[in-house]
Amino acid sequence: MEEKEISQAVIGRLPRYFRYLGQLKDEGIERVSSQELSDIMKVTASQIRQDLNHFGGFGQQGYGYNVGYLYEEIGKILGLDKEHKLIIIGAGHLGQALANYVNFERRGFIFCGIFDNDPAIYGTQIRDIEVRPVEEMEDFIKSNNVDIAVLTIPKQCAAAIAERLVSCGIRAIWNFAHVDLNVSEEIQVENVHLLDSLMKLSYNLASRRK
Q1: What is the pLDDT of residue 60?
Q2: What is the DSSP letter of 108?
């Protein structure tokens, strides 16, 4: 398939397609039209067709989409046909909650290490994985071929930790620190701001009351 620029808006909808198609697959539904998918997802049928056409279309005139096939193909586009090893930096409440989320493994994200700078919790086990000192992070990444680092640390130390992660070969960072990271363009970064999402919800709630 020819390499082409895909908008972040389209990429942002792919996990939703994958999730809803997975539900249809589990229900034993073998095919679905763009209109039926539109009714379920609350995205226009035209938008669905446009999105999928970026990757080859996958549909047939008069038939729609084969649910199982489309589910697998979107999974491949999202890289879910490969395993990705990930570590968590920050063993606080959020870090532990993410470490305990078993659905990561079901999607090929293998949690293999967690690090913190608090000596009081070194050796604590989270799903049979010991909390290690941050000083051991670089050697662990190199010896275990880790792809993704998850940051659940205070914003004041996030940039310095990110630099260390990049220098030892991390290819992607899922960042929950309350700061946007600026790293090399070769490193994929997803900045997650929980409060931004809550404020958006607050705005929508307030606007409904007017």
Answers
A1: 72
A2: T
Closest CA to 60 of 27, 32, 24: 32
Q: Can you read off the two tokens belonging to residue 7?
A: 């908008």
Domains and CATH numbers, the chain: 8-77 (1.10.10.10), 84-196 (3.40.50.720)
Distance from C-alpha of 210 to C-alpha of 207, rounded to nearest angstrom:
5
pTM equals 0.85
Helix ranges, 27-154 (H): 34-41, 45-53, 67-77, 93-99, 103-106, 137-144
Output the average pLDDT for the chain: 91
Nearest in space to 113 (alpha carbons), one of 94, 139, 93: 139
Where would I find the beta strands (DSSP E) of the chain? 31-32, 65-66, 84-89, 109-116, 125-126, 129-133, 148-151, 172-175, 188-191
